[in-house]
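Project standup — Tuesday

K.O.: blocked on the structure for the chain from last sprint. Re-posting the sequence here as requested.
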Amino acid sequence: MASQLVVLAFEGESTAEGMWNNFKDMQERGLIQLEDAVIVSRGQSTEVTIKQTDSRRGKYAAAGGGIGLLAGFLVGGPIGGAAVGALLGSLRDRGIDDKFVKSLSQQLKPESSSIFLLVKSGDRQKVQEELRPFKAVVVYTTLSPEVEKRLRETLAEEE
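H.V.: unblocked you, prediction finished:
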């Protein structure tokens, strides 16, 4: 199954950062599996801050480190090879397109934030229920129209 992109917006400059902690918790509990996540915030000014989470870089750095270690033994020096491999792995850009993030981020209102999630799998109903109290607004999604409609309705419901 292909990963789905979901972009949620929140009132408050730091709300998406707090939501990232909630998503990490949901991931640890097995409710959702994320491939990538990006947090965007905007204060009173027009300046937008984009923060790439470590959700993808750690995985690629570890894989790159392993490749570098093997290459290091062949070329001469496991430590240097591991360091080069980890660096190359961490720079590998997979997941949410950076240009898309920058483009959509320019539309953020002052004192708001958003989180871009590349979702590999998850329990939609449970995740939606956990999101409801945070008054998230769906900005963009690649979900099917039916699933997107249910997500929007769930997030719009009052508690």
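K.O.: great, moving the ticket to review. The chain has two domains: 4-56+96-156, 57-93. Residues 135 and 156 are 7 Å apart (CA to CA).
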